[in-house]
Description:
alpha+beta; 2 domains
Amino acid sequence: MKKKIILPVLILLLFSLFSACSFTDFSSAATIGNITSIYGAMSNPLVGYGLVTGLDGTGDQWGVNVTQQSIVTMLSKLGINTNEASLYEIRDTAAVMVTAELPPFAVPGERINVTVSSIGNAESLQGGVLLMTPLKGPDGKVYALGQGSVSTGGSVASENVMPLPGYVPVSQNFQTSGIIDNGGVVEKGVSIGLNNLSAVRLILKNPSFIDSSRIAAAINAKIG
């Protein structure tokens, strides 16, 4: 019983040290949280399948059956009946895989970045919008939802000020993958179970005996 009462208090002290306790080297000061991580507290990969719509004719062409099937399924869930044949000329939609990283200690409502990548023959995802996509962990459970405007960071580069005969625009960056800043909303986090640990271990991101000794000294000076 004594362990269950004392350990949570020590954990709270440890988190306060992460943000408040710092040590100084020759040129800079860093908090413990910036240069260490807690052993066992790792991020978890999430993945999902979704549709990006609103593309300017650069989406999947006819022949990518999974895209047409997905559109039909999505519309049917919204009460709209259609079939794949009626989608023959649609090129404003692309099938994509959606990935994200669920950080340790994430809580419901927290925002995370989302990455999308084409799995069909779309030419570009720039300017498209990812429709709501469940993001699942390795256990098959949904941990976040992804949605929002896709940015590929791409642009058209040329040394020509005005288009000339034979001018060919050059695309920078990959147009078939992009990111959605804060495009994911955490539905539930992953329990780390720190209360069940007899000790909390810190791991240096860049191992150094000097840093480890300074961290120990800073913690001892803070909590005695």
